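Dear colleague,

As promised, here are the two records you asked about, laid out in our usual form so they can be pasted straight into your sheet.

NAME FIELD: protein one
SEQUENCE, THEN STRUCTURE:
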Amino acid sequence: TTCILPWIALDRNADTSDPAFAPCCLYQSQDRPQHNFEEYWHSDELRKVREQMRNGDKPAGCWKCYNDEEHGQKSMRQSVNESRLGPHTELIEADHDDLKPLQIKLLSGASCNLACRMCQSHVSSKVYPVWESIGMPLKDPYKYDYASEEIIRKNAESVRYLDLMGGEPFYHKKIVKLISWLADNRHSEHITVYVTTNAMILNDRLISDLKKFENVVIIVSLDAVGKKHEYIRPGAVWETIVANIERLQRNNLNVI
């Protein structure tokens, strides 16, 4: 029943414009949401989750993964353990107070350069005015996650995995500055960074900084090819996306 994430990961619950800390985006808190990192990392709830997994029990907040497995589907727990459990097995028996966040997700908020038709008002700053103009129900836009950025900077020596999501991460100056700061201070040398992007925004400085990370995985969001993709994602230019993907590959950066 063990998942490595409660020992290493700092994530956010989904489905809210003010997400609480959690081991992963699927976890459903059985207690009050934790919006303060120190309260969350040292909370009785997180300690209980770890103890239950050590004892072979299934924490209630992790029901989604166990449910997937019972129905023959590969769960997030199984996928994460394939790459993370081996390198960090010794942490399972470590004292709670000795643990540090090794894997951190940073949400860049709703700031985005495209108005994708499948997107929602709280996820894209370009979609929000479209929904507003046609009378669709609106949600407060996601905010930039200042708290997680501060945690990354304070724990840069121990961070090993960084997940950057948006909006569009490369559209947000604070994300680009953080990448540069990690690279300039050589923290990037022991960090694997994952970035989910629409591949419209790229420059030489950004590529140079990304090449200084131990590993980089660029997840490009694509819905179709050519004009059909441009229709689904207003503001996208297919030729630019293809050129940027090839540019990333030429610089030996992994593209999915």
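NAME FIELD: protein two
SEQUENCE, THEN STRUCTURE:
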Amino acid sequence: ARDSTGAQVVGITGSVGKTSTKDLTAAVLARTGGTHAGVRSFNNEIGVPLTLLGATDDARFLVVEMGARTEGDITGLCAVARPDVGVVTTVAAAHTGVFGSLEAVARTKGEILDGLPSDGCAVLNADAPDVMGQASRARCPVLTFGDQGEVRAQKVVVDDSARPSFRLESPWGRIDVRLAVHGAHMVANAVAAAAAGLFLDVPLADVAAGLTEARLSPWRMDVQRAPNGLTVINDAYNANADSVAAALETLASLEVKGKRYAVLGDMAELGEHAEPAHREAGERAASRVDGLIAVGANAAITAGAARDAGLVKAEVVPDAEAAACVLRKWLQSDDAVLLKASRAARLEQLE
């Protein structure tokens, strides 16, 4: 399938933001040509081939998300997809229980750079030292994004629905962008997508339009408002310390007439980082919510940290069904609730 296509392939990896960056990049590239991207999080040894096989014969661009659980996984996926452009969103403490260390995570994400062609491009997060530490592996030009990058966002403003607007600045020019997706942390993903699009000759105006039109895969910063005013943020597909922090900031930035609640489930596969990560989540939640429901094996750590930080209303429950029972007692019209956990918690059932 890869040999049969003349499409340029964009491979996207990183500890956080892969799927959202994939969705945003596909929306940008689609402005100038037929574009096929993986659905949801089809990012492993099954999902990547399925993405290639699903492409139409006339596709101009393929956007492939690449995940990893052990060192060598990205190398294997690149052998199949052979990306022309490689994007690394960031390196964070995700799956460290499997990888063993943050350094191993960085090395693995950097594998996407090893096989890039000399006329390709490595799109790297300038604000992430662990990402930039892998830059020398690329034998092609490097294009950076982020606050310290060549492609960056300035004058970021978030509206009362947590949708960001910003001035996109780049070597190709500058333009105002308004995102339809929610969360200030989506700006970094949008800027990464813009960098990939600009390298692939998407005009600046089309980059901005594509970012404005982009929609995300299910259960990722999906903000829904019920007729009675209740707001639900369903970000329940996956979680690590960084994404939980970003989700809580999004909840805090929403204009809400009632109270704010969070349902936080386990962050899986963190190994020795699990206890401090869950404690930090509870401490962060304490100053941003009126009530917390902690779900799963690490719930006592999360809720205990929240109580220690001054949050009176913090419950520990074993599963999503029990969380639903508590929510039925708590939620009123005009409240807002965040659902956030690793996939195994299945918090999307609460929506």
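A couple of things worth noting about protein two: The first strand starts at residue 8 and ends at 13. The longest helix spans residues 186-199.

Best,
R.
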